[in-house]
Predict the 3D structure of the following.
Amino acid sequence: MSGMKPITLLWLRHDLRLDDNPALAAAAARGPVVPVFIWAPEEESPWEPGAASRWWLHHSLEKLAAAFAKAGAPLVIRRGPSLDALRALAKETGATHVAWNRRYEPAVIKRDTAIKKALVSDGLEAESFNGSLLYEPMHVATKEGRPYQVFTPFWRSLLSRDEPAAPVAAPHKLTGPAKALKSLAIDPLGLLPTIAWDSTMKKTWSPGEAGATKRLEKFLADGLTGYGRERDRPDHDGTSALSPHLHFGEVSPRRLWHAVRAAAGGKPVAKLTGGAEAFLREIGWREFASHLLFHFPHTSDAPLRSDYARFPWARDPVGLRAWQRGRTGFPIVDAGMRQLWATGWMHNRVRMIVASFLVKDLRVSWLEGAKWFWDTLVDADLAANTLGWQWAAGCGADAAPYFRIFNPTSQAEKFDPDGAYVKRWANADAADYPEPIVDHAEARKLALAALKTLT
């Protein structure tokens, strides 16, 4: 027995890949690995994965299971509670170690902390790693030791640090457990819709690590150079569309960082310009979002700026429904909302436009928008969703001031000048196309009047 290598349970969550997976690398270096995914959405309440996220997860798990089987350590799927599932697997396998990559959502931090304590009290070695950020939020602070609330100094701080470590290649061969383990099939988890609304999503996306790699390679070859110019044009294919792959951890931010640097000639990031600099800055915004949610965990449900708790939001279920369905009578808004419904994704510039419309033209609370995006986006990420919606509402960190109110018509003229995006997603010439549900000029006045009530 003394010559046997210790068995590690690799608890997979938002790190559905073999490449550059620190917890996997540590487990594989020690000995046999038992990769496990535990479906326990209730443990993430009140932000349990939405419908589009579940759809993505189903397909990503299929690809992950195939990859682990090929490497020699079959993926085990169990239902929660997570602690019970890990304890049961440790007993079944004789595992002495449990390893995972950290997550930063408030409910998950609380859950993981309790699980780690319980596993250690059981006599197991429990170790967590950084697999989803370049720099973890607990290690980034201002000179005064406080969290950042403005992006530019945060970004400067990241650029002044040592480069993130180079990514670690996927292990070619893994040693799995000596005996086959019971595992749930993916279908009974019930992640797919009962009514098939996912046909366009199937054509649009390839969930999984191989899909992420292909998407990254295409972007480096075709999209990186012009990214700074093209990323604001919803009528062009100018973004990387890597956000869902990043959210589910099918590609690591370290892999992206170093791949973009290499494509740009290997310069230090602080000296990059053009598309490469613009893209890595967006990775910086992703880091900033996690930084904020980690340090201000209440912001997923309440404004960072406490004075906005008194903002007189309107109760407008009819307007909210029209916005959700893409029937506001403002073509750029409707195009965005219909793109979202069809594909589970929306162009970032259009996200800003539709968010401004909801919180300023309709004066419906940003939380209503955040909940809708949470359910319908394949890249629904609690940190990014919170940052984006509070930015639009003027109540968060580094937010657009509330009095900055996007005019949907002029935004469309600027960013979709030929109307190609609107034409693709919302036929404003159709006989049943609705009249505008608000007068923008009047709505703007009402929004500014509501803002004055806070002073």
User: Anything to note?
Assistant: The domain at 133-166+209-295 is CATH 1.25.40.80 (Serine Threonine Protein Phosphatase 5, Tetratricopeptide repeat). The radius of gyration is 23 Å.
